[in-house]
Amino acid sequence: MKYVLTALLFILGFTFNASAEMETDGFSNAVTITTAGSSVSHATDCTGLTATTGTICYEIDADVFYVCEPSAGDCDTAGEWKVNAYMRLSGDTMTGTLDSLAITVAADSTHAIGEDATRYAEIFADSIDIGATGASGVITSPAEAMLATVDMRLTGPAITVGSGTGLTVNDAGSIRHEIYKVTLDYTGLSAAATTAKHTIATLPAGMKIVGVIADTTTKYIGGAISAVTLAVGVDSGNVDEFIEEHDVFAAAIVVGDADVDLGSGLIAATMVSGGYIDWASTTVVSAIIVSTSADTDALTQGSTTYYLETVQVK
Asked: SS3 for 112?
């Protein structure tokens, strides 16, 4: 039999809209919503209701909407009540795929996408505009990650690609010029010998080195050592291919900013096509230190920051 249950439903914590029709079975407190597509609310548990397909229930304490989606007949089990796909304006977490139009941010230069410890794997876009509003964008990224995942192109003056029979444009003009910076102190050059070296970078095949700066900010001294020289070169080749051997014992020093400091791989008279390049193999770049009067493990101080200017050609 059907009743108007306003008083009873108030006591039980149920509220319904005017279009919903309810009935009880006369033997329990179970409530059945019989008007399809009605909307109701419950103080604590929408999933305990029995309702017809399409009924929407607002669960007050959880601030969540449920929709009745029965496998057959009515929703008479908790699992047939599905959390509504619409999220609240704040406080909700989305675990599915977002299909959207434009996404805008509430305030300029204030909010982030992702977090430092939890990052998105990939971003697919036709163009990326990075930087302050109205300014030219700048991307800062570790060299290998930059080359492996970012294909940047100029939106301003750019190459006009060729065309015609037999011609295929493989790359219309990506940006591949970068500066790699790394600091190595004396502990990375400690050895039971008067010569020690440390790999500071491994460049992929087809990457051209066009400049190297070695900025020794703390001189290398310690124990009975009476002299120390430093060079930068190819690990399995010329040890001073990029930066000639120079004194780092007497004082802090910057080298590489003058042609006289450079090795045969970078000086104007001998470099190839504006720099040093190995087209077929990787290039292992090492810092090499030589001490006099004692082994390098006697060093107690010393630090150099290296700047490698490169262009990925291949």
From this structure: coil
**CA–CA dist 60, 48 (Å, integer):** 14
- Measure the CA–CA gap between 287 and 191, rounded to whole angstroms: 14
Q: Which residues pair with 195 in a beta bridge?
A: 290
**Range list of H helices, the chain:** 6-12, 143-149
Q: Which two tokens stand for residue 32?
A: 């059945």
Say how far apart CA 210 and CA 25 lie, in whole Å.
86
Which residues are paired to 211 by β-bridges? 309
d(CA 302, CA 291): 12
The pTM of the full predicted model, rounded to 2 decimals, is 0.57
The Cα–Cα gap between 306 and 198 comes to 12
Residue tagged 């493989």 (tokens): 170
Domains of the chain are 6-83 (no CATH), 177-312 (2.60.120)
Q: Tens-of-pLDDT digits for all 314 residues of the chain?
A: 333 333 343 334 444 443 444 444 433 344 555 555 678 889 999 998 988 888 888 888 888 888 999 998 889 899 999 887 565 666 667 777 777 788 888 888 888 888 888 888 887 777 666 655 544 444 444 444 444 445 555 556 677 888 899 898 887 777 788 899 999 999 999 999 999 999 999 999 999 999 999 999 999 999 999 999 999 999 877 788 999 999 999 999 999 999 899 998 898 888 878 899 999 999 999 999 999 999 999 999 999 999 999 998 88
Distance CA 231, CA 73 (A): 81
d(CA 299, CA 74): 81
- CA torsion sign for 294, 297, 302, 308 is positive
